[in-house]
Amino acid sequence: MAYDNQGATISMEDVRDPDITVSTIQEEIAARRNRMLKPQKSTVASRRQQAVCVRRAHKKYGPTKNPNVILDGLNMTVPKGAIYGLLGASGCGKTTLLSCIVGRRRLNSGEIWVLGGRPGGPGSGVPGPRIGYMPQEVALFGEFSIRETMIYFGWIAGMTTKEVDEKVDFLVSLLQLPNPTRQVKNLSGGQQRRVSLSAALLHDPELLILDEPTVGVDPVLRQSIWDHLVEITKGGRTTVIITTHYIDETKQANIIGLMRGGRFLAEESPSELMSRYQAESLEDVFLKLSVLQNMGKRRRSSILADVVEKVEIPSIPDPTAIDIEDSEIGEISGEFGDNVSMSSKGRGIVTEKVTAVEALPPEEKPTSRYLERIKPMKMHHMEALIWKNFWSLFRNYGLLTFIIGLPLSQMILFCLAIGHYPVGLPIGIVNNEVSPNDTDVLCDYSKSCPQDPDTWEWNLTRFSCRYLNFLSQRQNNLVLFPTKEIAMTESAKGKARAVLVFPSNFSASLQERMRDPRHADPSTIAKSEIEVHMDDTDKQVEWMLNRDIQLAFMETAEDLTTSCGLPKRMMSIPVRFHKPIFGLEIPNFTDFAGPGVILTIIFFLAVALTSGAMLAERNEGILERSLVSGITGTEILFSHVLVQMLVMVVQTITVLLIGFLVFNLTITGPVLWVVVLTLINGLCGMTFGFVVSCICDTERTATYLALGSFLPMMLLCGIIWPVEGMHMILQWISFVLPLTKSTESLRSMLQRGWSITVPTVYSGFISTTVWIIVYLSVSILLIKFKKG
Ligand SMILES: Nc1ncnc2c1ncn2[C@@H]1O[C@H](COP(=O)(O)OP(=O)(O)OP(=O)(O)O)[C@@H](O)[C@H]1O
Description:
Blueprint: H1 22-34, H2 44-48, E1 52-61, E2 68-78, E3 83-88, H3 94-101, E4 109-114, E5 131-134, H4 146-156, H5 161-174, H6 189-201, E6 207-211, H7 219-233, E7 239-243, E8 255-260, E9 263-268, H8 270-276, H9 282-298, H10 305-310, E10 335-336, E11 340-341, H11 347-354, H12 366-374, H13 379-394, H14 397-417, E12 427-431, H15 463-474, E13 478-480, H16 484-492, E14 498-502, H17 506-515, H18 522-527, E15 531-534, H19 539-563, H20 589-619, H21 622-628, H22 633-662, H23 671-695, H24 699-716, H25 728-736, H26 738-752, H27 759-785
Parallel strand pairs: 3-7, 3-8, 5-6, 6-7, 12-13, 12-14
Antiparallel strand pairs: 1-2, 1-4, 8-9, 10-11, 14-15
Bound molecules: adenosine-5'-triphosphate.
Adenosine-5'-triphosphate (ATP) is lined by residues 61, 68, 70, 88, 90-96, 136, 788.
């Protein structure tokens, strides 16, 4: 046997004097520090024979400048076949240590060997079915029944449903669980913890890691849980590491590790500890060892002096009783004080049963390592995950209604609310051409031709009335004001969005201007014009009114020529817009914004759905538990993708049907490719959701991130405003955003009718696919490497 000589551990031989006093202990501690450590042989092989072996573990949280040191050179040895009780005050780092052992957190320095290998490395079985992990959180699916929960974890561990059902009966009676058909969310906290424990016990793992399994469990049941643990470890095949706050319940453990200040105060059998420290209970032992540890630290800090003075210093009665030959010493890992270590004599009780040196796991071969790292998806994992994701989603009726109802309602709202022509805008009219007694804004005018058929002389009268008649066909809320001053005052109060003033001899001046433009004086020209004052605060409205005012004039002029039997086009501006190359003759904003809106709805719903599902899974500890049981990040992501694709197909069909069949959005291109682009865009949103859930720790930060990305994407991807109108730098940014190319591609298919072979169209597909790959890779890497 050998012990680790690098962990600053010294044998206990100097702390054995029964008449020891405070001062002598201090002297001894000081003397020991100066003493040379005797090097002992410690090999990787010896560490790999233990169920768990931790050496010189350092772990800290927080910033480098002000770190919160949790593990401070901790050594731990868990022999195979032992029940190891990990004890310590709340917050001392038990859970942190366990999550490092199961490979979910990384040490800052030090080594961990689990079942002969490094966690996460080949041969360790961690993560994987060789380990049974019950985390501190309940980490179960509320929507599932007890039996379904067992089926999920059983399938992951490679069990058949029949095997699971057989084990469920046993566990239900052992842990006094309610009827297995009961839903987990309807169980009490204590019952849920027992279900969680049974999920860890289900597949008879070699190493059971149980983080506070007996919280909220009554003493009788607690005893039967311990009896069961003792029973399963008897054969030496199963090892148990258990944390608990009930120190005295660990009397049945083979070894207990008392953790304090980032180290072990001791790592011994409970009976050995109690007899050595002449303590009634393990709590007493813990207290006495804590005092000793504080004394070691006292020279550095006097903060704990009060505590030390109030507690009786332990006397150690029979130093020879704990004297151990070097040859008997196992890998000493328990320690207390400043580099004062405890021997592990008690461990002999356990190790005797399992001392037969088992064959070591095969050495890692470099050739197979690469293949092992790729870890292809396992069928039984995927089966369990897809089954779980499917039922988690489809049993949550509220969520289901939301994810189908939201795109439906959004599309209806978009089609009803966006792109329609604003009507009923109040337009103030001051018509000085008619008498003040003429109170009807649509004043009378002669519809016959105002041209003398003999002399061809024009006699234009009340042209303003003719014009207002046409204007009212476009904007029907014309409000007559008696004077320009009143009109301007009222419009300043918001009573009119524009004011049109007709000069007193508007028709005569207009006629003069047309008849003899060369000799028309500026006053005549000024009086021939309609004076327009616009409310420019709303650019969109201003443009539309501007267009109406001008088009109404053209229509009036055309009407005049028609009434005189002249060609209609004679009076219009000599620019004629013929059939458009693409799109409708009357431009439609709904058609312009439609593609972007469709893609945005599908993209961000997928982001919300995926990040929500993943975050819930992670925060409830389910993700952690699944990863420890051997599921890979890739499997988790792909299982979500497969199930959520179903949802997305329904969402896509709903949105497209509403848009194109109900609201007649223009669709002239290939329908199949339109559907495919919408679907892969949703997939892109889904993968972005994975990234969000991996980066963010809480739903709140995920909401901020999703919202923070939603607005820039909306603004920059050309939905609201053409990309060509943006600042050059924004155009570059817009170019690489996931929705820009796809929006343009969809618009080209819908309105231009372009096929997939056109670069603008296929570049949308390529851009979306590239983003999917990027997001997916980032999420897989984050799941794999983002550990505490
Ligand atoms: N991700 C983290 N970031 C920063 N600090 C953390 C993190 N996780 C744990 N800690 C801190 O590390 C310390 C040890 O936490 P840990 O959960 O390991 O303690 P514990 O012994 O299991 O406590 P308990 O018995 O109450 O569960 C605590 O002070 C805790 O606040």
